[in-house]
Specification:
Belongs to the 5'-AMP-activated protein kinase gamma subunit family. AMPK is a heterotrimer of an alpha catalytic subunit (PRKAA1 or PRKAA2), a beta (PRKAB1 or PRKAB2) and a gamma non-catalytic subunits (PRKAG1, PRKAG2 or PRKAG3). Interacts with FNIP1 and FNIP2. This is 5'-AMP-activated protein kinase subunit gamma. GO terms for molecular function: AMP binding; kinase activity; protein kinase binding; protein kinase regulator activity. By secondary structure, this protein is an alpha+beta fold. It has one domain: CBS-domain. It contains four helices and two strands. The chain has a two-stranded antiparallel ribbon with strand order 1-2. The protein is elongated.
């Protein structure tokens, strides 16, 4: 705890800037394959779907949501 009192936010921001990564997103017209590829390639857990006209987030894709969709899609095809 004593060390924590010595740290300043300015120093903390400098450390974070060194580790900063670019913002990763996809558009609503991207394929599911492109979304999975972006998640894996960029090593992110959440991928915002951004409306190109407004810049607003429409949806947040995650590995879990994609797997749930695939499970439901395959289940419907089998029955």
């Amino acid at each position: 705890m004593d060390e924590l009192e010595d740290h300043r936010i300015a120093n903390w921001r400098e450390v974070l800037i060194e580790k900063e990564r670019p913002f990763v997103s996809i558009g609503p017209d991207a394929s599911l394959f492109d979304a999975v590829k972006a998640l894996i390639h960029n090593r992110v857990h959440r991928l915002p779907v951004i409306d190109e006209n407004t810049g607003n987030a429409i949806y947040i894709l995650t590995h879990k949501r994609i797997l749930r969709f695939l499970h439901l899609y395959v289940s419907q095809r089998l029955y």
